[in-house]
Amino acid sequence: MVLKEKYDVIIVGAGPAGAGAAKALTGSGLSTLIVERDELPRYKMCSGIVFPSSRKFIEDNFGELPDKIKCSPAIVKGNRICLTHDSPIMDAPFSMFDEGDELEQEGFNTRRADLDYWLCRQSDADIQGNCRFSDVEKKGKQYLVHLIKDGEKISVRTDFLIGADGTMSRVRKKTFPGFDDTVGLLPNYEEIYTGSIDLDPGWLYLFMDERVTEYFATVFHKDDKIVLVTGVRERSAVKDYFQAFRTYLEEKHGLKVKETVASRGIVLTDMSATRNYCLGKEGILLAGEAGGFLRGGEGITSSLISGKAAGDAVVEAVQSGAPAIDCYQTLAREEMDRCNKVHENLAAVLGYNVFMRGTGERAS
Ligand SMILES: Cc1cc2nc3c(=O)[nH]c(=O)nc-3n(C[C@H](O)[C@H](O)[C@H](O)COP(=O)(O)OP(=O)(O)OC[C@H]3O[C@@H](n4cnc5c(N)ncnc54)[C@H](O)[C@@H]3O)c2cc1C
User: Is residue 227 very low, low, confident or very high in pLDDT (cuts 50, 70, 90)?
Assistant: First the structure.
């Protein structure tokens, strides 16, 4: 695709936050471009569970999720939590951490690459993969956005820039140099296996024992694969914790690995857990994890909702002449409060703030 010299809105990142923003802008008449650094559809390390709240948001705003996006088992009944190796596994329905809305009880098990690409394609935005955001400069009332598309440097003008580029957001780094020094990171590591385990595939298992994780460790099923993930505070410790987790599952839950098909790492931030949001400034808005939105471990919903708030804020700013950031601060408030509430509920169930585990801080 040949990019135009100017778009009304450029969205960086083709995840749920980018898709939420693009969908909100659809029909507004504002020309919109989504740029994604990876080839599309892109892989995202994630359990890929569309929780009941995401399910509702998607059905209300995008339509029914196509079956081809779901993997087996398609239905996820809830979380199962094991607080320590000595405690029983408890059923924790999704509704335990979520309050208020009338929601379905069950979630969907999806492939994130297919889910996110489908969500983006429900908008009328141009979508460009292999196109990395590199920098942004203010030029009068507009922005000049520097991109690397298929290895070549190009620059495109825009009135509004939405950073929906995830935890390590470059839009955030370039707009707020130094902000990332205030952010705590939680490295996560996953291995994907063929084999067997005596855990029911219809649940998302969370293991909290401090011998296997400094955050939480999970087991879930994707088609015929078993996925193990553990999260820590110190990157150097992740492989040791992971090995301890795998050994525990082999000894206690009959994990038998036939073949390791993939392994990857990713980081989460503690922005939401510490109420350290970063919404943007002037015509640059940060949505999803780039802005700090995360409902405990559930991020698809908060990214979709904050992305929609960013898209709606741009439309409102164009119509009213108010600064987009002012509109966004108002529209994103409810989702920030909801993220804070989920962290409080999670801390009440666990007895500690899981994102602050091991730091001596217990407050949500
Ligand atoms: C192990 C794990 C399991 C999880 N499981 C679940 C779950 O089951 N359900 C759930 O709801 N949430 C889950 N989450 C959280 C969820 O994955 C995230 O909160 C969600 O993906 C955030 O969406 P986003 O749109 O903000 O960012 P992302 O989904 O990370 O999308 C950001 C996009 O921006 C692109 N990008 C980054 N930098 C640039 C750049 N410079 N230029 C162009 N593009 C760029 C990235 O490639 C990416 O595609 C999980 C997270 C982890 C780590």
Answer: very high
Residue range(s) in the chain whose domain bears CATH number 3.50.50.60: 6-48+113-182+271-350
Site to probe by mutation for ligand 1, drawn from 38, 42, 44, 106 as the one with most ligand atoms within 8 Å of Cβ, is 44
CATH topology of domain 76-103+185-268: D-Amino Acid Oxidase; Chain A, domain 2 (3.30.9)
Neighbours of 179 (CB within 10 A): 15
- CA 15 to centroid of ligand 1, rounded, Å: 6
Confidence of residue 358 (pLDDT cuts 50, 70, 90): low
- Tell me which residues have their CB closer than 6 angstroms to ligand 1: 12-18, 35-38, 42, 44-49, 51, 54, 132-133, 164-166, 170, 188, 229, 266, 268, 288-290, 294, 297-301, 303
Residue type, 118: W
Residues 93/96/100/101 CA torsion (nearest 10 deg): -20
DSSP state of 97: T
What number is the average pLDDT over the span 118-135? 98
* pTM, entire model: 0.97
Tell which one of 47, 54, 192, 308 to mutate to probe ligand 1, the residue whose CB is within 8 A of the most ligand atoms.
47
| CATH superfamily membership of 6-48+113-182+271-350 | FAD/NAD(P)-binding domain (3.50.50.60)
Span from the CA of 20 to the centroid of ligand 1 (angstroms): 13
pLDDT tens, 65-78?
Answer: 999 999 999 999 99
How far is it, in rounded angstroms, from Cα 261 to Cα 106? 28
DSSP E strands, the chain: 6-12, 32-35, 49-50, 70-76, 79-82, 90-92, 107-110, 126-128, 131-139, 142-149, 152-163, 185-196, 204-207, 217-222, 225-231, 256-269, 280-281, 284-286
Which part of the chain is CATH 3.30.9.10?
76-103+185-268
Indicate if the pLDDT at residue 357 is higher than 60: yes
CB 293 within 8 A of CB 338: no
Separation of 81 CA from ligand 1 center, angstroms?
23
